[in-house]
Amino acid sequence: MKISDRDLAQEMTASLPTLTTFARFLSRNSAQAEDLVQQAMLQAWESRARWQPVSTLSSWLFAILRNCYYDEYRRRRREIAQASRSLIADAVIAEQSIEWNPSDLDRALRSLPAALRDPLMLVAVRGLSYQDTARLCGCKEGTIKSRISRARAHLSRLVDTA
C-alpha cells in the first residue's frame, strides 16, 4: 500500500513536535535542534520513495534525525581537529555559554554510551516499542532489552553514589 505525498506530508508534519524534542535532547541547543529537524525532514522528503510502510513513519524519521545528528557531530569533530589551539579554546568557551543548563539527570544520561542511551530514550521518553526501537537501531529486540537494562543499571549506580 503506497501512501500519497499529501498524506505523507501531513504525517511528517504531525511528527514535528516529537522530532524537535528528540533533537533538543541530542544537541542540547534549540537552534541546532531546529536545524537538525529541518535537515531530517528534507532528507525524509527527498527519500520518500524509499520509505516502506511496513515500518512506522516515526521510526523512519527518528532514524534519519539521529543520522543527521551523527553526521553533524562527525563534521564538527573534523573541523575542531583541524583548528588551531586558540580556536579550540574559543569553541570550548562558546560551548560552555550555551543557553541550556543541564540537570543531573541530563548529565547522567549523557554519560551513557550512545548504544545504551539511544534505545533508553526511544523507549522511555518517546514511547516506542522494543520492536520499533530494534528496527530503528538495526539490531535484535533482545539486544535492545539488554541495552536498556544495562543503561538503567548504570543510571541506578550513579544515583546510589550521588
Which structural traits does this protein have?
single chain; 162 residues; mainly alpha; Rna Polymerase Sigma Factor, Chain: A; Arc Repressor Mutant, subunit A; 2 domains; 9 helices; 0% strand; globular
What does this protein structure show overall?
By secondary structure, the protein is an all-alpha fold. The chain has two domains: 1-100, Rna Polymerase Sigma Factor, Chain: A (Orthogonal Bundle), CATH 1.10.1740.10; 102-162, Winged helix-like DNA-binding domain superfamily/Winged helix DNA-binding domain (Arc Repressor Mutant, subunit A, Orthogonal Bundle). The protein is 78% helix and 0% strand. The chain is built from nine helices and no strands. It has helices at 5-14, 16-27, 30-46, 57-82, 85-96, 104-111, 114-125, 130-137, 141-161. Helix 7 (114-125) packs across helix 9. The radius of gyration is 17 Å and the shape is globular.
Number of helices: 9
CATH superfamily caption of the largest domain: RNA polymerase sigma factor, region 2, helix turn helix motif
Q: Give helix and strand order, one letter per element, not per position.
A: HHHHHHHHH
* Overall domain count: 2
Please name the CATH architecture of the largest domain: Orthogonal Bundle
What share of the residues lie within helices? Answer: over 70%
